């Protein structure tokens, strides 16, 4: 069993057996902080230097690395990896088996479908002298479909939708739809031009 730091857990938050929270990654790192009324399910691993808000929901076998900040009312699905140095807003749903690399920013009211992959290195293991990890920027009320791929440094604008399986290779203007490989960007149909809102968010917010 790895040595763990003293975690700071809010009222009503449940840590299931076999979950590891506040795992140290270096001497002197800060503990994990989780707000009220959360659930961390078994076999999740959360490192130190992670700050999570209230009403957090975490599936099994989730990994959240250091220097990650997560807002309120966030769900992280089973098998999802958040590789650290990541900012996630409030009212966000990351479905199962999503991969979020370092230096990624995700806004509020965002949905990311199962198996979606974000990337932060345009030329993996090439041009190392120029390497600087740059993850995607996902603005508020964006929906990312299942198995979509978002390339490094791409900004997906407010209210946009990325179709399942699409590969996003360039910046996406607000209220756009991205489909296909490589992703073709077009205006979002009028009937889909409204912010993301889950019924549970309306009840909890």
TrEMBL record:
* Gene3D superfamilies, per the entry: Hexapeptide repeat proteins
Q: Which domain of life is it from?
A: Bacteria
Q: Which UniProt keywords apply?
A: Acyltransferase, Amino-acid biosynthesis, Diaminopimelate biosynthesis, Lysine biosynthesis, Repeat, Transferase
GO MF annotation, one: acyltransferase activity
Q: Which PROSITE patterns match?
A: HEXAPEP_TRANSFERASES (PS00101)
Q: Which CDD domains match?
A: LbH_WxcM_N_like (cd03358)
Q: Which Pfam families match?
A: Hexapep, Hexapep_2
Family to which this protein belongs: Belongs to the transferase hexapeptide repeat family.
Q: What protein does this entry describe?
A: Transferase hexapeptide repeat containing protein
Organism in which the protein naturally occurs = Sphaerobacter thermophilus (strain ATCC 49802 / DSM 20745 / KCCM 41009 / NCIMB 13125 / S 6022)
